[in-house]
Design goal:
CATH class: Mainly Alpha
Shape: globular
Number of helices: 5
Helix content: 40-55%
Order of helices and strands: HEHHEHH
Distance between the termini: 39 Å
CATH architecture: Orthogonal Bundle
Number of strands: 2
Number of domains: 1
Oligomer: single chain
Largest sheet: 2 strands, parallel
CATH topology: Arc Repressor Mutant, subunit A
Radius of gyration: 14 Å
């Protein structure tokens, strides 16, 4: 009997976001959702898990690279999560927080 290898959605999202970081870019919610077989409005929980796993490993919050088509920035949930997970962001404005975390992703991908 052959073994079946199955990657969960959180692992797949993490891999995609690492590739986005290698390229020094961002990805919109809808294209990411299509790549993992879900709807954009169903990404909040998996993206939360991606960031929690990454933070536990000492990695950047890869979800910083997922942006809204309308604003070109992450949705509000990202900022709230980042402030809960990283105490250094508690008193930092959204633009600075996003810039710092996004660049953490790019730097980690270059290593």
């Amino acid at each position: 009997m052959s073994e079946m290898f199955e990657v969960d959605r959180v692992d797949r999202i993490t891999d995609i976001l690492f590739g986005v970081a290698v390229a020094g870019g961002t990805i919109e919610y809808a294209p990411l959702a299509r790549r993992v077989g879900t709807r954009p409005d169903f990404l909040s929980h998996p993206l939360d898990q991606v960031s929690r796993r990454a933070a536990q490993r000492g990695e950047p919050m890869w979800s910083a690279l997922v942006v809204s088509k309308a604003s070109g920035r992450p949705n509000e949930g990202f900022y709230a999560m980042a402030r809960r997970m990283r105490t250094e962001y508690v008193d930092v404005d959204d633009a600075t927080l996003w810039d710092r975390e996004r660049h953490r992703c790019y730097e980690a991908a270059r290593r």
